Amino acid sequence: MVKRIIFSFFVIVASFYIFPTLLTDETIVINVKNYGAKGDGVSDDTAAIQSALKDGADNKIYFPEGEYKISKELHISDNTEVYGSNAKINASADLITVMRVKGSNIIIRNLTVNGKKTALRGITIEESSSRVVISENVIQNFTQPEARSLSRLTVSAIRVKGGTKNIIMDQNYIENVMARNPVKGWGHYVARGILIRPDSSNQPAPKNITISNSSITNIGPKDDGDGIVVQGFKDKINLKILNNSFSYTYKRAIKIQSPGVLIKGNKIYNNFYQNNFYTTYPNNNLHDMWSAISIYADHSTIVDNTITGVGHYGRIIDVANASHIKIIKNHLKNGHKGTDKNTSIIAITSNHSNDVLKDYTILDNTLINAKYGIYTNSDITDLNVWNNKQVNINKNF
User: Fold this and answer.
1) CA 383 to chain centroid
2) pTM, whole model, 2 decimals?
3) CA 392 to CA 368: how far, in whole Å?
4) Could you tell me which of 12, 265, 324, 392 has the fewest CB atoms within 10 Å of its CB?
5) 46 and 71 in contact (C-beta within 8 Å)?
6) Which pLDDT tens digit goes with each residue over 134-149?
7) What 3-state DSSP class applies to 184?
8) Distance between CA atoms of 370 and 220, rounded to whole angstroms?
9) To which H or E segment does residue 5 belong?
10) Which distant-in-sequence residues (6+ apart) come within 8 Å of 177 by Cβ?
11) Closest CA to 272 of 319, 225, 305, 239
């Protein structure tokens, strides 16, 4: 607890060091109720809030206690801080996003953003945005809207697009992000707590993204329900995933498909035992979750994470078609009641027959309850495996 408090303080201090503070002698606090917002949960406050946001540059937008019903997305631009006191922003119509951020020097903190199962996303951070802090928010209850144009898109609580930089997401609570329709063009149910992905093929990789001290829970279903996903970028992105907790992430907690990621100090729990099933995949329900962490890109480091649970993962750390990987000082434990008795703690695979993976360090990990401690089906050069403690492991390699 002391360690996490110290780290939270560091992130907050760092955010004010990296991002120039919005407070100056001329800063004005704008109360949305002074612009006509009721906050009674019944009146449509969209126009009043958006009017306040238009005057928000170099100012702070304050939401007093209340429930603010909106029927259109809210746009937040440069040099604006938005914060509340026991304030909830509730979607009341089919929306692609509740808040859309485009600009620099933006803070959103201490709000509840509630999709009310009628909004696709909570907060969307657009291309070219920089120095954005999303902190101490509850972001909850998202699914695909009924509107035909939105009903088969990917649902997420936070969506970060390409071409962004210096983004901090800290001390947020993300819950209840559930797909109810297969995604168009793929045919599977896809949900993300946080999704970092380009909006088009020409968007550059984001840079310097931190997700820290947050809780992510109830992201599903199992077909492709993941807590954090980054994908679609070839360049290193410098993403840090630090000291978060994950539960009820139906398929996996973290999926990495772009290079340059540090995953450190997280706690991941597998809550499932014989009660988590695929819908659109063949009926293979041997494992209770596919994995805790999947790495499908180079230059990834997994260090000092604690991964446990009731049931079994198909593999706890799943690495495929990737090189320059470090897996160090992790506590990796399958549950005693696991459904699948043929699991691996760490699986390193390749589906490219001519590829040789390289540069792996697997050091000082604790591996508990599986058939294989470390499994690989691929040639690996410069493979360094040292000082890993194994408990109730039948085979290694």
Assistant:
1) 30
2) 0.94
3) 6
4) 392
5) yes
6) 999 999 999 999 999 9
7) coil
8) 25
9) helix 2-18
10) 142, 143, 155, 156, 157, 191, 192, 193, 218, 219, 220, 225
11) 225
